[in-house]
Design a protein that fits this description.
Elements: H1 15-22, E1 26-29, H2 32-41, H3 47-50, H4 56-71, E2 76-79, H5 85-98
Parallel strand pairs: 1-2
Helix pairs in contact: 2-4
């Protein structure tokens, strides 16, 4: 099973430790420009972005900077431009070898 959490999930309480203990965690690393393009394509009414005042890029940059240390505690860090089916197959194989 693959589960995608919200961006703030690993940043609160002990969620990142629980996630790391429960399975394989992957941080899909991207830059602000990629995030802006993704948001423009899929405007899903994200609650934290609805309240963003001023420059959306600056808001994303600030949020990413605050959260990065939590995200980087994932077991795998994959830049989004490097993601392919074979990448996920490797992760699945490493999961199979762990459990």
């Amino acid at each position: 099973m693959v589960m995608a959490s919200g961006g703030g999930t690993p940043c609160f309480y002990d969620h990142r430790s629980i996630m790391n203990a429960a399975g394989i965690t992957v941080y899909l690393e991207s830059d602000v420009q990629y995030l802006l393009k993704n948001i423009a394509r899929r405007d899903t009414g994200r609650p934290l972005l609805q309240n963003a005042e001023g420059d959306l890029a600056a808001h994303l940059r600030d949020t990413l900077q605050r959260r990065r240390s939590f995200y980087e505690q994932a077991q795998h860090i994959l830049p989004v431009q490097d993601i392919s089916l074979s990448t996920f197959e490797k992760i699945i194989a490493s999961c199979t070898n762990r459990h």
